[in-house]
Write a structure and sequence with these properties.
Elements (H helix, E strand, L loop, with lengths): L6 E5 L17 H10 L3 H7 L14 E5 L7 H12 L6 H4 L1 E2 L2 E2 L3 H5 L9 H10 L5 H15 L4 H12 L1 H9 L1 H6 L3 H24 L27 H17 L9 H15 L12 H9 L1
Helix pairs in contact: 7-8, 7-11, 9-11, 9-12
Protein name: Helitron helicase-like domain-containing protein
């Protein structure tokens, strides 16, 4: 249509028997089922192509196929997409599940003997991309989704390689807290507490949202003491802990700016607003301050 060469064709991916069916409210149910059985999608039509022999035509075939992205949370559909990229000439969904003459029950089971899930590199890559733009609170939620729906081969190793970024907000809180600077002088002690706090947060997410637990996965152990807000007070509510964690993580990003790098006009505006806020002349309300100024004041 757009005179592009090669043309691109999107493959609408769906599981067997889950293709979309469109109908009107007053349509007869039997007619709807009949149309659904006879309806072709790009996936089912693609399965029929290898069954039909056709003489090769010169100048034919200038089309590049593309498959829609699928979230790892949709585990079966995600692994179906992976098989479509690696299995040539598939004629059915059952064919895609068959590897070396053995038909597996799920697409995920069929992916393993092909060697596509020998390592957790795809999950390392997933977390690595997310940490560039996501806060630690969001990274912990993504880690939980990976554990529950993606079944990594070695969940504990995945945790060990990414735990620093999953615990970055607690690192900031602990290094800023005067009590902890006196009590835990070693950086390794602070890191260990931050990791333990992050483990407890991860356990909370798994229990509340997925009915699961880190105890299901080999290698994990839960701390005996909850020190997520204050090592002397373990009775702080979950909502308050989550808000503190979010504030701390945002402050890490916000405090990265350098006041000395401001140009003269920016520095004049900054100094003026800071002075006004000190004397409470209308700028103490955080809603009236830009984010940078708000976080600078909040950090003080």
């Amino acid at each position: 249509m757009h005179k592009e060469f090669p043309a691109h064709q999107r493959l609408a991916i769906h599981l067997e028997g889950e293709n979309p069916v469109y109908f009107n409210e007053d349509d007869d149910v039997n007619n709807v089922f009949s149309r659904a059985k006879a309806q072709e999608t790009t996936v089912t039509a693609c399965n029929k192509v290898p069954k039909i022999w056709a003489l090769r035509q010169r100048g034919f075939g200038g089309i590049i196929g593309r498959i829609y992205a699928v979230s790892p949370k949709q585990s079966e559909k995600y692994h179906l997409r992976m098989l479509l990229y690696h299995v040539s000439g598939a004629t059915s969904f059952a064919h895609l599940k068959t590897v070396n003459g053995v038909q597996y029950a799920t697409f995920q089971d069929a992916v393993r003997p092909l060697g596509l899930l020998k390592s957790d590199n795809q999950w390392y890559q997933c977390l690595g991309e997310a940490l560039q733009i996501q806060l630690s609170v969001s990274l912990r939620k993504l880690f939980c989704i990976t554990l529950v729906f993606c079944e990594p081969a070695n969940p504990y190793q995945l945790w060990l390689k990414s735990r620093f970024y999953l615990s970055e907000d607690y690192m900031y809180q602990l290094t800023k807290n005067n009590y902890l600077r006196r009590e835990f002088r070693l950086a390794t002690d602070i890191e260990e507490i931050a990791y333990n706090n992050s483990v407890l947060d991860t356990e909370d997410i798994l229990l509340r949202q997925y009915g699961s637990s880190l105890r299901r996965f080999s290698g994990f152990s839960l701390p005996n003491i909850d020190t997520r807000n204050n090592p002397e007070d373990t009775s702080v509510s979950r909502i308050f802990r989550e808000q503190n964690a979010l504030n701390a993580t945002v402050l890490i990003r916000a405090n990265a700016f350098d006041i000395d790098s401001f140009n003269p006009e920016q520095r004049h505006v900054f100094d003026t607003i800071i002075m006004e806020s000190v004397y409470d002349n209308g700028y103490s309300d955080s809603q009236n301050c830009p984010n940078v100024l708000h976080f600078w004041l909040f950090g003080r």
